[in-house]
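Human: We require from you a protein record containing the residue sequence and its fold in token form, and nothing else.

Assistant:
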Amino acid sequence: MNNLREPLSRPTAGITAGLVSGLTALAVAELVAAVIRPQAGPVNAVGAAAIDLTPAPVKDFAIRTFGEDDKVVLQLGILAVLALLAAALGLAALNHRRVATAGVLVFGLVGGVAALSRPDSTGPVDVLPSVAGAVVGALVLYWLAGRAADVAAPAPGEVTARGPARRSFLAAAAGTAVASVAAASLGRHLAGRSGRGATASRQAVRLPAPASPAPPLPGNVQPAVAGISPFTTPTGDFYRVDTALVVPRVDADTWRLRIHGKGARTRTYSLSDLLARPLIERDITLTCVSNEVGGPYIGTARWLGVPLADLLREAGVRPPSQGGEADQLVARSVDGMTLGSPVEDVMDGRDAVLAVGMNGRPLPFDHGFPVRMLVPGLYGYVSACKWITDIELTTFDAYDPYWVKRNWARKAPVKTQSRIDTPKPFARLSPGTVPVAGVAWAQRRGINRVEVRIDEGPWQDADLAPQATVDTWRQWSYPWQATPGGHTISVRATDGDGAVQTEQRTRTTPDGASGWHGVFTTVT
């Protein structure tokens, strides 16, 4: 209580007014966005615009450093910057209230423009959250700044003011902050309710039995080695890399897919239409191009879906090798993301699918419900469109998708890679037999050989588990007779075409990382 009776300095009052007005602006904006469209909120819109404007090496660094928390870090960063700006405007408002409140309106305009510029914008209505928040925030700042100026005006001979004006200011600021928190909570509640229809539609989906089930996995496809990745990645552990700050929650009942473009007769499908078709079930390993050597952005799941080539043929599409007009298939997501795949690859006989199921369940929202695209052998950024809603047949010369505009390669077949899962880097081990194990992958080619090297010694063949299919990774293990000292363990793979994994180390841009994975351990 003694602290509450301490004098309130002029800067402190101004900063408090600025922070409270900023909180109010964001709370009102998010409340309005919950009613209109959560993606139109200023933090999400500005964050998405920031992602689009960020150079590829910086994005790569963010994924490498923060992993799947990169979006949370971005949003926290935006909030921190907004807090600093709000504090600065609060200080400025002590002497220039009109200028400071105009500054709040400018930031609202920035948020509105960002929302309107998004590919998934529904039109001018997306400006309303930012504008409404800015107007209310500006009014609150003007009001609180006047009270802050009064409370901070010292009497003659005093450094700071005291008394009723101070208590009135603090009560006004506290009451406004509480109301803002209540508005933000209501916005979150409404936003959650807006997705209930999508959640109910997912719960109502009943996946039919596949017309073409996945081949049974060999009994020993998973070596009995502690620490190795499971052959089938649990859905909850499957990596997620995308640009969506707000995961789209698509209602399966209203979802539609349109196929159109060069050499194609326009076709439209509902989820029910797809589920009524003969479905195939396949084990497919999916890899992100942002996966560094030895990185975690790879996983294998059992996917259920419609053969994409069948849909394209029904629309009259032919691959270029058969005289087709289009050489690029552009997949569009409900959030405006575009990915480009070679038509030839999609229609060459591989199991390219529009997936509706993952590991025996409907797709999770995080992984693209109700439908996502998969093309084995291609990195995800050119093939694995989540929340897909549109397929356009075009040419590589005519259109550059999202990532190509940001200097990633137009075509990106998965490179031959291998990874050591155990032992972990910098592990401290005991002398004797130490199991070294991991995974290797070269989708569409398969893995024929894996070799392990200790320090600069000779390469030794690892034991290979059976290859499930050429579209999945392959597990391997090696019994290492560990001796005392520090040792570097390296691994390399040879694919089904006889190509040996290159030693040359490259970063992920523009078409995937390469190099040998190695871990350092200490044996004592």
